[in-house]
Here is the input.
Amino acid sequence: MHTLTIVDFLVRLATGVACGALIGVERQWRARMAGLRTNALVAAGATLFVLYSTAVGDSGSPTRVASYVVSGIGFLGGGVILRDGAGVRGLNTAATLWCSAAVGVLAASGRLEFAVLGTLAVLAVHLVLRPAGRLLDRAPASGSDPDAAVHATVHVVCERRAETHIRALLLQALTASDLTPLSLRARRDTEDTTGIRASVTVSGDLAQALEQVIARLSLEPDVRDLHWHLDESEVAPEQRALA
Here is the structure.
């Protein structure tokens, strides 16, 4: 029977955490709810549970523990799935956490090369299939061009001390939603607050793209006010007359 040495333990744990962190980097860059630390911790937890069962010397225990890890991640994933109107958000995040746990289990079992290949497969799904999914998801509305770009403005009022952080976070959220910033202005509204205004170009689903940005920034405790609107030139004349 193979005895788990300290070196084996550290190598497998390090591989599991590294694979989870690599998956989390992409999620963090996209400004998703579960980012670098969450995915790394999920992978680390899955790795440690399976390593424990290996360390105690029960040959059948690792398989049973792995099945319990899958069930436990199901509860964790359910916490990031949110209802948004008629649809739901967070399904991709929950599935990614599940995959992070899977690569952790592979690393703990000693299949380090399989854990790395699994990590690359998860990253490929996010990086390659994401644009493909957007292409398939574009359904032209009657009388409208889904690829027509419109201009919108995002307004943020935040604590003055957090201006640099919020500005960087705003740019990151815009980039993660594939929005093209045209300009970014910061103005000191009062002694304690700063107003930040970002003008962006949006193609496709305007509300969905900007609501992702709003949802990300709304989690920040230093943000006092947050909203977006279409630029005046993008509003139809009859709508301006009714305003």
Remarks:
- Helices lie at 6-29, 36-55, 61-78, 91-108, 112-137, 163-176, 206-217, 237-242.
- The beta strands are 82-84, 87-89, 150-159, 180-188, 193-202, 223-230.
- DSSP finds eight helices and six strands in the chain.
- Residues 139-146, 233-243 have pLDDT under 50 and may be disordered.
